[in-house]
């Protein structure tokens, strides 16, 4: 019942109108007095809502005293609402003023539902290419939209992480002081048609945060990160044991030179003679 009322409100009906329509659909027909009594609200509010619904054609008013009301059957109701919504959307699309250029900006999205809604809308608009770097859990939530895009001829480029227990392939940049990072999150990114991107984090409790932008700098950074990761992955797959044999521990140390903990960084700075005040040429 609550879901039905929610969707009716999403279609533009008020809370009162939605409850009245559901009540009439349940009873078949009823007087304004009976509806008000059943809902526990004032008759004046019910009669005002019934008058609006009758004028709009969603509710019929029968002859007799007192007048008895009935709502259209679900198929008729859906057809009428759909027709009006489509007509309004077409009018807005054609008549909405188109102003000057808008500066590229970043905006934040919070909440799982808002994030998935924004992604769904953009994936449905994709025309040429979608670059996806996600965990399998997040990919499964958007499986339908991604499959539809692929059927439209959109090129999909994928990078998947397997699960929460998988170890990071390379050292991860640690925080420098302050609060430690919130644990249990899964990073993801989408770049659509090389012009729109979303970068965010989804947590095990269902909360999510993301940044969305069409700014070319972040779009380019995400594309570069994706291509570099895929190139490294293919090199490691291709070279395999040869890479380990030739480099051994030195391979991981290459990363560790740049990705280190704060204490390691401080120690490294202290041991650097070029940065010491006691090391001077006479």
What labels describe this entry?
single chain; 282 residues; alpha+beta; Arc Repressor Mutant, subunit A; Endonuclease, Chain A; 6-stranded mixed beta sheet; disordered C terminus
What does this structure look like?
- The protein is α+β, with helices and mostly antiparallel strands.
- It has two domains: 1-83, Winged helix-like DNA-binding domain superfamily/Winged helix DNA-binding domain (Arc Repressor Mutant, subunit A); 106-166 and 181-259, Endonuclease, Chain A (2-Layer Sandwich).
- It is 51% helix and 18% strand.
- It has twelve helices and nine strands.
- Helix 3 crosses helix 4.
- The protein is elongated and about 95 Å long.
- The termini are far apart.
- The relative contact order is 0.08.
- The model is unreliable at 163-168 and 269-282 (pLDDT under 50).
- Pfam families: TrmB (PF01978).
- This is Sugar-specific transcriptional regulator TrmB.
- One of its GO terms (molecular function) is DNA binding.
- Keywords: DNA-binding.
* N-end to C-end Cα span: 86 Å
- Helicity range: 40-55%
Domain count, please report it: 2
The CATH architecture of the largest domain would be: 2-Layer Sandwich
CATH class identity of the largest domain = Alpha Beta
Which shape, going by the Cα principal axes? elongated
What's the β-strand tally? 9
Structural class: alpha+beta
CATH superfamily of the largest domain: Endonuclease Chain A
The major sheet is characterized as: 6 strands, mixed
What name is given to the CATH topology of the largest domain? Endonuclease, Chain A
Radius of gyration over C-alpha positions, nearest whole angstrom:
30 Å
Oligomer class: single chain
Q: Figure out the total of helices.
A: 12
Biggest sheet, strands in spatial order?
4-9-8-7-5-6
N-to-C order of helices and strands: HHEHHEEHEHEHHEEEEHHHH
Strand composition percent: 15-25%
Mean pLDDT: 82
Uncertain spans: 163-168, 269-282
